[in-house]
Amino acid sequence: MKALVYGGPGVKSWTEVPDPVVSDPRDAIIRVDAVTICGTDLHILGGDVPEVRPGRVLGHEAVGTVVAVGSGVAGLAEGDRVLASCISACGVCRFCREGAYGQCRGGGGWILGHLVDGVQAEYARVPFADLSTYKLPEQVSDEAAVLLADILPTSYEVGVLNGNVRPGDTVAIVGAGPIGLAAIIGARLFSPAHIVAIDKADSRLQAAKMLGADTTVLADEDPKAVVDQLTGGLGADVVMEAVGVPETFELCTRLVRPGGRVANIGVHGKPATLHLEDLWIRNVTITTGLVDTFSTPKLLGMLVAGQLDVGQMVTHRFPLEDIMAAYDVFSRPAQTGALKVVLSR
């Protein structure tokens, strides 16, 4: 089969690799029907995730059809259409028992496209398949479902829930890429008074407005002045970092009010300065996190019920074999206007 293979920082190729096989009783093999590219994949290619070794098949967000299951898989059968979660869960370690699947110590966590071969391929092995896949109802399209593999639960859990968004809050989201836009969708569920989106690209700020941000500001303007004007000089109740660079994290700590919350979602490859000399007296809470995907069933239910509108998130569509072109488009959002790209068979 063919797959997108990491060759080291800045190097990738769509090339022949061995077909995946069931290597553990809890495995399933899926035919990949739809897959997408994540900002984390770009961080890997930038050298920010050194645990990923050359030769690894990338990708951790897919919808597929089950073609084989191990003897220990009880809830899946050949032909089932499933969402393959970005997080794998052994189900028996301490963290899995607490619902913190991202911290799994039994061989799970974020492993697809990271520590084991991922899903940007024609076929993929899904470890711990019973706990790491979700059967999809017919009315949910592949394109909508694939957004539930990572970005929607990530923004909802690590951004909205960790940030404790409440009715009437002023919420500032730094970075209006796919994660930031998904955070807007999630934050709206809690009726904030204002959602402020901050980004470098006009196209992404326009998307932020379509998805529910009532205020947008270019990063090279003065985001703090805009937030202060909205809040009488107090600052935002919740600020979400959705980029993963030092400058945006430090901006978040300047935008938050005393007693407010900074929820870091972005994947960081470099150290960021924590200005405790300013923050220690302001009662600011800073959270970090890897998604656990405990919210995926709830989000899927809201999608089925029509309470989540993700249709505007996908801007580009490609055949699976054109994944190199898709990477090029996704990596240049300021020029291409790309939000999420979806590749299908």
Biggest beta sheet attributes: 7 strands, mixed
Order of helices and strands: EEEHEEHEHEHHEHEHEHEHEHEHEHHE
| Helix content bin | 25-40%
| Average residue pLDDT | 96
**Beta-strand proportion:** 15-25%
Distance between the termini: 13 Å
Describe it for me?
The protein is of the alpha/beta class and 345 residues long. Helices cover 28% and strands 25% of the residues. The protein has 13 helices and 15 strands. The chain has helices at residues 39-45, 94-97, 129-132, 142-146, 151-161, 178-188, 202-211, 223-231, 246-255, 276-279, 296-304, 323-330, 333-336, and strands at 2-8, 11-16, 28-36, 62-69, 81-84, 123-126, 133-135, 170-174, 194-199, 215-218, 236-241, 256-264, 285-287, 314-319, 340-344. Strands 3, 4, 5, 6, 7, 14 and 15 form a seven-stranded mixed β-sheet that branches. A six-stranded parallel β-sheet has the order 10-9-8-11-12-13, with helices on both faces. Helix 7 (202-211) links the parallel strand 9 and strand 10. Helix 5 packs across helix 6 and helix 6 (178-188) runs parallel beside helix 7 (202-211). The radius of gyration is 20 Å and the shape is globular.
Descriptive labels:
25% strand; 13 helices; globular; 345 residues; single chain; 15 strands; 28% helix
Describe how the helices and strands are arranged.
Blueprint: E1 2-8, E2 11-16, E3 28-36, H1 39-45, E4 62-69, E5 81-84, H2 94-97, E6 123-126, H3 129-132, E7 133-135, H4 142-146, H5 151-161, E8 170-174, H6 178-188, E9 194-199, H7 202-211, E10 215-218, H8 223-231, E11 236-241, H9 246-255, E12 256-264, H10 276-279, E13 285-287, H11 296-304, E14 314-319, H12 323-330, H13 333-336, E15 340-344
